[in-house]
Design a protein that fits this description.
Length: 295
């Protein structure tokens, strides 16, 4: 096992093994986000006027249609609101809904093809794609706006596009569930990132800052966690650790409906993880552990 594989190993549960829905989410993450990292996909987005961060915010938000910026901020949850608003509005001004969806699908599909090659030569591809599609089909969209939006998209015309689309559904479904858990626990966006850092032992503010929070906002968020008794100094208290573990357990349980409908979770997670490793080895996904621990 490589150093990167060790870094990506999901946080184990008391029985020593991560929950199936966490393992599935971690396995699909590089595939689902390929359109945000692959150079050719980003170049394609740039041809329609989208540069970072609009090249991330508007394509992802396009699953919702064209709501107000406040709705996008709500759905993105842990991202700094003013930054999301500015990226969303500039993105919409550059390119329309139908075109950004078309370019997003094309860029992501082409990137999957560049990594995996001829779909007929990818062992188990159709088996895993069909299994995932069946697993998510008809599951509840309540309190899952980004997942709900994706379910309304037409099925991509080829198998590699379907792989990208269904892994995106799996990812957004879990992300939506995690935001519901955070809201129920009274944890705001900046606090969610800070708890995550402390739980996993990341350098302070290293992950939270990537979501565009300012230093003043991060400092204030950390102080609110201290006031709640969740953080003491720069470490989680017992209550803070218990809360973060409860958030994880809630999210895992919410996504059991998907993994319970898979015929063999281990088989599909192994394949998805292998394909994701090809993406990482190509340099098209950040070779660091914290990306897979986001939600």
């Amino acid at each position: 096992m490589s150093t990167a594989d060790t870094a990506f190993a999901p946080r184990p549960q008391p029985d020593g093994r991560a929950h199936p829905s966490r393992r599935l989410r971690d396995a699909v993450e590089p595939l689902a986000t390929l359109g945000y990292h692959a150079p050719d996909a980003l170049d394609l987005l740039a041809t329609v006027g989208l540069e970072h961060p609009a090249s991330y915010v508007w394509p992802r938000a396009s699953s919702l249609g064209e709501p107000s910026a406040a709705v996008v901020v709500s759905a993105f949850g842990v991202w700094q609101p003013e930054a999301v608003t500015a990226a969303y509005e500039s993105g919409r001004a550059a390119v329309g809904l139908a075109e950004v969806r078309r370019v997003r699908l094309r860029g992501a599909t082409d990137a999957v093809r560049a990594v995996l090659g001829d779909p007929e030569e990818v062992d188990g591809l159709e088996d895993t794609v069909v299994a995932l599609e069946r697993a998510v089909a008809g599951t509840s969209t309540v309190a899952r706006p980004l997942f709900a939006g994706l379910t309304g998209h037409p099925e991509p015309p080829d198998l590699l596009g379907r792989l990208w689309h269904v892994t995106n559904e799996v990812r957004e479904r879990r992300g939506d569930a995690h935001l519901a858990a955070l809201a129920g626990a009274g944890v705001d966006g900046v606090g969610a990132n800070l708890l995550n850092e402390l739980w996993h032992g990341f350098d302070q503010f290293s992950f939270t800052a990537t979501r565009f929070w300012t230093q003043a906002q991060m400092d204030a968020g950390l102080e609110r966690l201290r006031h709640r008794g969740l953080v003491d100094g720069e470490e989680l208290t017992d209550d803070g650790r218990s809360l973060r573990e409860a958030l994880e357990a809630f999210t895992d349980a919410a996504e059991e409906v998907v993994t319970d409908r898979l015929d063999d979770v281990d088989r599909h997670v192994e394949r998805l993880g292998r394909w994701s490793r090809q993406i990482i080895d190509r340099g098209w996904y950040p070779d660091e552990g914290n990306k897979r621990y986001a939600g």
